[in-house]
Amino acid sequence: MDNPPPPAITYTAAGLATVVLILLSRRLFGRKLKLPPGPKPWPIIGNFNLIGPLPHRSLHELAKKYGPIMQIKFGSIPVVVGSSSEVAEAILKTHDISLADRPKIAAGKYTTYNYSDITWSQYGPYWSHLRKFCNMEIFSPKRLDFYQHVRVEELHSLLKSLYKTSGTPFKTREKFSDLSLSVISRLVLGRNYTLESEKGKGVYTPHEFKKILDELFVLNGVLEIGDWIPWLSYFDLQGNIKKMKAVAKKVDRFIEHELEEHDARRNGVKNYVAKDMMDILLQLSDDPSLDVEFGRTGVKALTLDLIAGGTESTAVTAEWALAELLKKPEIFEKATEELDRVIGRERWVEEKDIVDLPYVTAIMKETMRLHNVSPLLVPRVAREDVQISGYDIPKGTVVMVNVWTIGRDPKIWDNPNEFCPERFLGEEIEVEGQNFKLMPFGAGKRICVGYPLGLKIIQSSVANLLHGFNWKLPKGMKKEDLDMEEIFALSTPKKNPLVAVAEPRLPPHLYSV
Ligand code: HEM
Asked: Which residues of this UniProt protein bind heme (predicted)?
């Protein structure tokens, strides 16, 4: 057998490459790079040994040692993590455009049509066109007003179905995600995908469809080794790529079926008037005057973004809010006192009432402070060299903001680990990305595109859940037994789903609306 070539050759080549890189970067910056502090990386794995199943918590611990801007390595890729509101502002505002790309991770490739959606596409004309379209056609104030009746109808149908559970324990998130999925599927596809009566019209039952979405969310949040140690991606050691391809196939079957139905409806009809967002997207993809090619793949990817982005985040936030309140029943009392005083017991809360409910609004903010659905936001990539707090961040570096740490920063929040809505009363801290202490939707160019809708659903649903029901834990369970552990996925839900009991507190005729 031939002897393998002496490793020295490889080392020499690698050494040479490193020297060239260092020289090049010195030339670019005209001096030696000053990288943010951080733990010494191991060969191949970098600092993966320091990252547990809840990466935001591991990075939180590391930030205590290395400070509000640190650099670690995920495999061979440098990752800069900002963990203070000042560094977050530098990343998401001062250097927003320079840091607006996304990493090309496997989930984006396999589950979102090769990075054709908004979330994983690179900053540039295609992405900006999709966002502009969403802002003008889907989430504009006019469009949101136009579709208010859909949100109201679906919320009332949730309240009605909770009334039927009266006194029986149920898994809250399942019910809440029905609300967001029904609103989103009616807006995007023109049909309520959660109704059993719709069975047979789509390719999956509502139950199957929700299972597919759950899988998609988990796979979009996993720490896939091949993303960070690229030569390992071929081996698919965790089996994630196989699962991503399988779920993508199922999703495509679903969207393709919807597209065919929409095509059939439009075909041959002169001056067809769009009935839902998929219709609007199809019209856009036919438009020859667009300078960006959108195509059928773009329609599919954006449809998926809207369904996936809109479903879990609102349901997860509502579940966390209830879990926190079940631990602190005195907050329920204050909230219902406000609701009875402002709304009374003879009607439901309407979207326009939210401005008059400061305490309920404070509950929302406090929930989002402690339970951000994306504790590290969505990672960004430097499109050019930048400097933050005197440290160099070379082009190609992955950049993350740990909003989980910022939400618990004792320099910003008194008793940061305590759930205390009162801290927001009389304070002008909004959640729409202007304040770098509280960023449940992110901030800057990449801020959540669906936040105007997400905020409306979450505010009116939580307000009405508190207005319409007394919430209790199942018989025999004490508030001390309620765990607050999370899992890391695309959203960050409770590890053990919250099971609760809802007892109606308004006159019975209201639940039959
Ligand atoms: C409570 C509700 C919601 C929360 C808390 C939430 C949170 C977030 C966060 C934290 C990001 C990452 C922002 C960043 O990287 O800086 C994001 C991005 C995104 N969200 Fe949401 N979201 C919600 C609702 C929605 C809804 C209703 C939709 C669509 C129907 C949506 C679609 C998206 C999309 C497409 C992106 C990617 C934006 C981009 O990369 O340009 N989200 N969301």
From this structure: 448
Residue 447 alpha carbon to ligand 1 centre in Å: 7
pLDDT per residue as tens digits for the range 445-477:
999 999 999 999 999 999 999 999 999 999 999
The edge-to-edge listing of strands for the beta sheet with 170-171 is 170-171, 499-504, 469-472
CB of 182 sitting under 6 A from ligand 1? no
- Ligand 1 atom with least separation from CA of 444: 16
Helices (H), 390-496: 403-406, 451-468
If we measure between CA atoms, which residue out of 241, 162, 257 comes closest to residue 209? Answer: 257
Nearest to 369 by CA among 426, 328, 450, 430: 430
Interval between CA 450 and ligand 1 midpoint (Å): 6
pLDDT in tens, 8-48: 334 444 455 444 555 455 544 557 899 999 999 999 999 99
Which atom number of ligand 1 is nearest to the Cα of residue 453?
Answer: 27
Comparing 11 with 334, which gets the higher pLDDT? Answer: 334
* Residue 424: pLDDT over 80: yes
Instruction: Tell whether 448 is in a known binding site.
Output: yes
Mutate to test the pocket of ligand 1, among 406, 445, 447, 448 (most ligand atoms within 8 A of CB): 448
Predicted TM-score (pTM) of this structure: 0.91
Question: 202 φ, ψ to 5°?
Answer: -100, 180
Q: What's the burial of 148, exposed, middle or buried (CB within 10 Å: 0-12/13-18/19+)?
A: middle
Burial class (CB in 10 A: 0-12, 13-18, 19+), 391: middle
305 lines ligand 1 (CB under 6 A): yes
Residues 47 and 72 sit within 8 Å (Cβ to Cβ): yes
| Distance from C-alpha of 115 to C-alpha of 62, rounded to nearest angstrom | 31
Let me know: does 392 contact 33? Beta carbons within 8 Å.
yes
The Cα-based distances of 197 to 9, 183, 194, 261 in angstroms read 67, 16, 9, 18
Q: What is the pLDDT of residue 174?
A: 87
| 39 Cα to the center of ligand 1, angstroms | 31
pLDDT over 60 (residue 491): yes
The residues, any chain, with a CB within 8 Å of residue 96's CB and separated by 6 or more, are 444, 445
Q: Which residue has the tokens 């579940």?
A: 319
Ligand 1 proximity of 375 Cβ (cutoff 6 Å): no
Alpha-carbon distance of 367 to 118, in angstroms, equals 26
Strand 380-381 with 398-401, pairing:
antiparallel
